[in-house]
Task: structure prediction
Amino acid sequence: MSDVATHGATPEVPSIDDLVERRQAAIACPYPAFAALRSDDPISFNDTLGAWIVTRYDDVTTILHDTERFSSLMPTGPQAVGGVLATAMAELAQDPEMAQTFEAVMGNRSRAAVLLNADPPEHRRQRILVNGAFRPSNIKDLEPRMVEVAHGLLDDIVGAAGERGAAEIVHRFCVLFPMTIIATALGVGDDDLARFKRWSDDVVMPVGNHSPSVEQVRGYLTSSREFADYFREKLAARRREPTGDVISDVANAELDGEQLSEAEMLSMLQQFLVAGNETTTNLLSNIVRHLAERPELQQRIRDDRSLISGLVEEALRFEAPVGGLFRQAKVDVTIGETQIRAGQHCWLLFASANRDEARFPEPDALDPCRANLRDHLAFGHGEHFCIGASLARAEGRIATNALLDRLGDITLAPGNTFPFNDTFVLRGMTELHIEFTSLPWKRDTEMSDPK
Result:
């Protein structure tokens, strides 16, 4: 089944400009526009973005690996620090009620290029310091909690065995599951999930939105300060008394006698909170939709649960939760036949590279047995490969197993309109209504997780 068919594209194919302008039809189905660029203009300059758009797999990976000539300091692009956002920031800086918040947030930002927006050698130093927080043994230790949380959430969704039910699955499961798990990993429990979600949503607001309102920017600043105040106390407590969680790892990480600065720690925890829920929420929502739209695939996965890991990888390729990030040229560079000047930005379209026919034959087909399943760029590539990839993969596998354990014959409910988040970078639905048959389930089998 083609992506155009399953995502309800109109006969008039949206353009890349429609996507950058955040028109819903383009956000819902940008893939024909990506395909046109790959074929006709694989590296093209977009005036609205103020950046080159790079669409082919080989070109994207070339730039990702070239940390000598390309910088990651502005991964969400030039628009995220200029234009409408800068104007709103300037206005709020003059607001007496916001002045201290503005100074606190911007002061931390200026002192903390961390992981996602850090270049070598700082990035490598930071990565070495916190790699242990996501070591395989830690992820393995979290898996029983993942199973428990998944089934606990589904307890509130299912009915009596054999009963036909309905649910809006994004908010009732896909949001709450990864948010609870990242809270557990951080070591903050799940009493503040609503607050964490608000902080996360507000913090990512500028990503893929180059025309935010003043109130959106106010929310961004307020949530950023609240986050810093909350986690500053947690970091101080973990330095005094480590408890074996991610906050403890960050607070006490040391290399050759050197620790992270407080600004680095706070920025790092913010990235973990955001990446640990926003992207996995989108992954899970997409998996549920794929299963509901493709009954033959759903039955195939039910019959052979060993295919779930492949389904997770293929879902990441097919619908990359992060459509693409930016790099800035440090010097004049030629990529392919295109010259990119020093100081210019490139939007590396992971979502397009993941559908590049030269790398993935029949790219618009969803195949959990694809030969090169892990070649996708949903987690980036090279120096900045996502530190939480193993956690996201485990969450995807365990959540999908739980859904199939508890929900039979998953279908789309009538009336779905498939609204997407208002961003051209972070791809995810805001709601998805499904129908299903509740399956019998015995609590003593809850801890099982077929691989």
Summary: The chain has one domain: 3-445.
